[in-house]
Amino acid sequence: MSIVPKETIEVIAQSIGITNLSPDVALSLAPDVEYRMRQIMQEAIKCMLHSRRTTLTADDVDAALNLKNVEPIYGFASGGPLRFKRAVGHRDLFYIDDKDVDLKDVIEASLPKAPLDTALTCHWLAIEGVQPAIPENAPVDVISAPSDVKKHEQKDDNLPVDIKLPVKHVLSRELQLYFDKVTELALNEPNSGLFKEALVSLATDSGLHPLVPYFTCFVADEVSHGLSNFPRLFALMRVVNSLLQNPHIHIEPYLHQLMPSIVTCLVSRRLGSRLTDNHWELRDFTANLVASICKRFGHVYSSLQSRLTKTLLNAFLDPKKAITQHYGAIQGLGALGPNVVLFEVFITTFNKMKS
């Protein structure tokens, strides 16, 4: 037996102009109507659960009707749950509690603004990692007023003080996970195949420019604190080499932070703590890395090669330096080319001997 009575079928039929529907036909249609209603409600509940909601809305029913290729019901859209009231004199009859609207207020209300035409505009989200202060971008948070303690520490001359707002550099979660994974491999698994794949990614991926300052600080910190760890030093130089090979990275502003770490791995007295550490190979690799930097960025920083040559020459001519430092200086000067060896080394040595 259907929960939909035949009287409901007769009322629906009369609403669409069918006045001569027989009771037997209405009784036969009732189970089919119940089946269709249950099918639609099951699909609507699925849409509700998929939207992570616990309240069924008219939009869920419309979505279920759309899935069944049925025209949706018009005029019942609502942003919130509908309120029903019981009809007076009827125990099981309910109606939607609509708010009464004065027709006079609707007529006298002003017309809404016309919608704007569709248009496209472009603006800079960030330039070299710095967000420009334009109306299209989110405003920088206003600095709060100084506390009472800081007020007493201010200058007595009452001169205006220029306060520059700090620029917050925010990384996406994907880039943060990428940086953490690469640094973990460089520190703990420098000889693994996964680290080699990470080096290839550093040399080819086009979306790594926001990570350049982080990799620069990471290399500088680890080189300064890990001179006794040979595998780590070699891994760090390979990371720098991969970053320099990436054509999508603008690394020129960070060379002044990378060069001290690179030169340290070239002319440091001792690299590694074990006798089996092949620090000669690391110095050869770093010498070629220095030469590639001078060749690529020498026209941008005119004093780069001259300052580097002077540093290597001082390490080479200093008799107090160890043989490992002399070796690194010779390899670095040799990698810079024969002209550097001729004009810098021999001429400088000749002038010192002459004086």
Automatic annotation (TrEMBL):
GO cellular component terms, A-Z: SAGA complex; SLIK (SAGA-like) complex; transcription factor TFIID complex
Subcellular location: Nucleus
CDD domains noted in UniProt: HFD_TAF6, TAF6C
Cross-referenced Pfam families: TAF, TAF6_C
Location of the TATA box binding protein associated factor (TAF) histone-like fold domain: 2-68
Annotated GO biological process: RNA polymerase II preinitiation complex assembly
Coiled coil location: none
Primary site of residence: nucleus
Molecular function per GO: protein heterodimerization activity; RNA polymerase II general transcription initiation factor activity; transcription coactivator activity
Keywords associated with the record: Nucleus, Transcription, Transcription regulation
Signal peptide: none
Membership in a protein family: Belongs to the TAF6 family.
Protein name, UniProt field: Transcription initiation factor TFIID subunit 6, variant 2
Organism: Pisum sativum
